[in-house]
Amino acid sequence: MLIAGTRIEAGKDVILLIGAANRDPRKYADPGRFDIFRPDLDTAKAYSAGANHTAFGLGRHFCVGAMLSKAEVEIGVGLLLDSMGDVKYQEGFAPRESGVWTRGLDELLLDFNPRTPSQPID
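The structure assignment produced for this chain is given below.
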């Protein structure tokens, strides 16, 4: 059987789900594009029950670990970016998401000049 261009062999398990969180084109511009600076998300409310995305749930189902996740990402990414000068995607690279239960990048190809500990941060 062929489903969306993928051949499924007889006897194999198939998991069906609706993977549409934050992908409604009526609400999000170009919802399939990976963009950490997406202008249609309110970052001031991103880690609160008032968020306009479903990554951490809403209301009483809001993820209790969301604030810890936010702190971990801010610290980890901040340290990483501070050590990278002139960071940019490698020429010709386009981010591609994959995954069933959680989505993430298959790879992230970057070019940058490492900073030495004595170099100032711009």
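Interim note for the steering committee: The chain is about 15% helix and 15% strand. The longest strand covers residues 84-89.
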